Structures are given as structure tokens and as C-alpha cells.
Amino acid sequence: MSEVEITRLKVQGKEFLGLRVEMPNAPLLLIKGTIGFAMCGYLNPSTAEKLGDVAVMVSGVNTFEDMLNAKIKWSSPKAKEIGIEEGRILRDEIDKL
């Protein structure tokens, strides 16, 4: 596997962009939708909130499939405005991104 992977993901009939970067201890993962994104614990939710992004965070993940099956640990105020809350499974909410 290369150190940086960019791939197209199809989930619930919608296409997303997946980014995976191999880091020393765990991968950095991001799934980008049309209006927002899902990030792993490596990225800073405070910055996403400050910039007004529609963003959610999941943690303890190593693959895109892990991300999709993980519970949302954090959602930005903008994500909450469109109905994305913590505790929900990302796969069930990703179409809103």
C-alpha cells in the first residue's frame, strides 16, 4: 500500500472522496462529501468548528469501512443544524455530507 491513497467511495448510491495517509502509528482518514466531511481522530475538530464546516469525527478506525461502521463521536454545530448527531453510525448519516 502506498503512503497516500485517494479513492472514490460509493455509499448509498452517492459518491465520496476518500483520503488515507499512512502515519507512524495509525492511518489518517478523511471522507469528503458534497457539503462536508468525516474525519478520524487525527484531525482537529476545533478548527473545523471555527471555520464553520459541516464535519463529523469518528475514532479508533483504520479503514474507510471502519469509518462507515463507526459511531460519530463529535459533530460540528453546522452538522447538527442538518441533523447529524453524535452516537449515530456514520454510514447512516453520510448521505447528509
Short description:
By secondary structure, this protein is α+β, with helices and mostly antiparallel strands. The chain has helices at residues 45-50, 64-69, 77-81, 90-93; strands at 4-11, 14-21, 28-32, 36-39, 54-57, 74-75.
Topology (SSEs and partners):
Layout: E1 4-11, E2 14-21, E3 28-32, E4 36-39, H1 45-50, E5 54-57, H2 64-69, E6 74-75, H3 77-81, H4 90-93
Parallel strand pairs: 4-5
Antiparallel strand pairs: 1-2, 2-3, 3-4, 5-6
Based on helices, strands and strand pairing, what is the structural class?
Answer: alpha+beta
Tally of individual helices: 4
- If you compute it from the alpha carbons, what radius of gyration comes out, rounded to the nearest whole angstrom? 12 Å
Q: CATH homologous superfamily name?
A: Hypothetical protein YunC
Poorly predicted ranges: none
SSE pattern, N- to C-terminal? EEEEHEHEHH
Looking at the structure, what is the overall shape? globular
In spatial order, strands of the major sheet run: 1-2-3-4-5-6
Span from first to last CA?
27 Å
The main pleated sheet reads as:
6 strands, mixed
CATH top level class name: Alpha Beta
Tally of discrete structural domains: 1
Percent of residues in β-strands: 25-35%
CATH topology: Hypothetical protein Ta1206 fold
Helix content: 10-25%
Task: Please count the beta strands (DSSP E, at least 2 residues each).
Answer: 6
Rounded mean pLDDT is: 96
The CATH architecture can be given as 2-Layer Sandwich
